[in-house]
Amino acid sequence: MNKQRKAVALISGGLDSMLAAKTVMDQGVHVEGINFFTGFCVEGHTHAIRAKAKAKPKRNNALWVAEQLGIKLHIVDVIDEYKDVLINPKHGYGANMNPCLDCKIFMVNKAKQWIAENGFDFIITGEVIGQRPMSQRRDTMPVIARESGADDLLLRPLCAKYLPPTVPEREGWVDRDKLHDFSGRSRKPQMELVKQYGISDYAQPAGGCCFLTDPNYSAKLVDLWQARDNNREYELDDIMLLKVGRHIRPAANFKLIVAREEGEGRFLEGYRKEYISLFSLSHSGPLVLLDGTPSAEDLHLAAAITARFGQGRNAESVEVTITQKDGSERRLRSSLSPAPTFRRRGIYEPGRVKRQAFVMSAAGDSYAG
Ligand code: SF4
Predict the structure, then answer these.
(1) Closest residue to atom 1 of ligand 1, CA basis
(2) In 3-state terms, what secondary structure has residue 169?
(3) How confident is the model at residue 365, as a pLDDT?
(4) Which of 26, 80, 145, 280 is a good FRET partner for 190, with 20 to 30 A between their CA atoms?
(5) Which structural domains are found in the chain, ordered by start?
């Protein structure tokens, strides 16, 4: 009796990786999934904190796909190793801060190591020729196979017919005739296949699952590095916080993270020991974290902005509490005159450069305690 072959499928949570895994499973291969957690995944805990898009299921799509397929999913933390991929991508970035080609090479290489350690035979990805401008092109497909070290142990079931036969095809572990010839950006063939499989629910296409393809997120990431003298090192908390709140940089030496809703406020609460925090005492308003080294004058401005985002935005004065990292508090009263004292501060919201905010002048603010 022939030995049952084992493959690991890179599962992003999107439709393509789901179909690729299913195509191979249907040929009698034992498939397990692998998902790499880089810290930039859209899903995860920050995905679930906003009330926005309530209709959308709050789920980890990679886990959900594995459940739909009835396969085991291995979630691998690559946060630290991934830093080098993002900071020094040999093949550069895509339209935003997405180093897609280096990222794919890195992940396939990790999968290659994984199959060697776990006694699996080959690797499956959901790549489709011509679907993504950077990593899924005819000329970059061989680069991924070669530079990852996976070579012809890497099977792309959705576009295999356009590629040279891989080991699983040559060895007869899978039937090449039952693999696909999808290409280009059209999703029609995938839609057809999904119908054949009777799958009615699936996540957005690839790319939508990664913050690095998001222009606003990318702008905030670049801003973070610039504010640190172009030191690109980062911690998980740095990149998680970029996913949450409105980020406002009134000056090079500090920025504010303003919760946009209750869920974000609760999330930011968890960081109050690591950042200076502000909230309006006299009126309801959002929790604001301050990242940086503000001067006394900067704190006036930060308090004015905090007031601006709360219910006291039209009040004559707003009392704001400023809490230092050590827990010590001071109160500051922003005496805010209405419209005439507004002046343009050149407040910079990374990713929203064209919509510069107007905030109240800090000149009328005074300490109340
Ligand atoms: S979209 Fe993100 S996760 Fe996907 S290949 Fe590009 S950088 Fe990697």
Answers:
(1) 207
(2) helix
(3) 32
(4) 145
(5) 6-197 (3.40.50.620), 244-367 (no CATH)
